[in-house]
Amino acid sequence: MNRPDKSPCALIVMGVSGSGKSTIATALAERLSWAFEDGDRFHPASNVAKMRAGHPLTDEDRWPWLEAIADEIGRVCEASGHVVIACSALKRVYRDVLLRGRHDVRFVFLDGSQTLIADRLARRKGHFMPPGLLDSQFRTLEPPQADERPITVSIDAPVETIVNNIVAQAQVRTQSP
Ligand SMILES: Nc1ncnc2c1ncn2[C@@H]1O[C@H](COP(=O)(O)OP(=O)(O)OP(=O)(O)O)[C@@H](O)[C@H]1O
Ligand SMILES: O=C(O)[C@H](O)[C@@H](O)[C@H](O)[C@H](O)CO
């Protein structure tokens, strides 16, 4: 298990709020016939209440949430499963917590301008995350570096094109075994 040459058991779709994590991760999971998990499901209620009230999360707020997602990744991978997870993973230290040293987990970075994402957030309805937190999301974001081997895709494209781009870069099977 956990060899660098092994095809991934988990793809973590990361980026700021509104970059399209839920949308792209859902479509990618469907394409690959993998499970989908929304990282937001692992937030304690206090974190969601804080964001809803317009306050950015701190590192301390995020550690237990990241550990819970890392637990889930470990569980799926050790059971020989496959999962696409939507999780902001904004800082490198957050990504290190999520990986726990695994080499069979890769990040998909949704790369887009603040102007484009603000425009999409302004149109989005029925979500707890206020568009006003986008500034702090961009201030916190540390885009993944080359040594993290991210799969980076531009979000300025239709969903299907983005998913095709990810599948072309990720060395994953598109059929269940
Ligand atoms: N490629 C795309 N083209 C056009 N609209 C898109 C695209 N991807 C996502 N959207 C739209 O942008 C908005 C934000 O997408 P989504 O909710 O998936 O982002 P998110 O990163 O999961 O956000 P959050 O982290 O706040 O949950 C949604 O209204 C979604 O329909
Ligand atoms: O790290 C964070 O600040 C939070 O996780 C946010 O990214 C939210 O989870 C998400 O973007 C809203 O759905």
If you had to describe this structure to a student in words, what would you say it looks like?
Pathway: Carbohydrate acid metabolism. Pfam families: SKI. It comes from Bradyrhizobium erythrophlei. 43% of the residues lie in helices and 14% in strands. By secondary structure, the chain is of the alpha/beta class. The protein has one domain (10-169): P-loop containing nucleotide triphosphate hydrolases (Rossmann fold). The protein has a 5-stranded parallel sheet with strand order 2-3-1-4-5. Helix 1 crosses helix 7 and helix 3 (59-78) runs parallel beside helix 4 (92-99). The radius of gyration is 15 Å and the shape is globular. The two termini are 17 Å apart. Residues 15, 17-23, 86, 88, 120, 124, 127, 129, 155, 158-159, 162 line the site of adenosine-5'-triphosphate. D-gluconic acid binds next to loops.
Please give a handful of descriptors for the protein shown.
binds D-gluconic acid; binds adenosine-5'-triphosphate; single chain; 177 residues; 5-stranded parallel sheet; kinase; 14% strand; alpha/beta; gluconate utilization; Rossmann fold; 43% helix
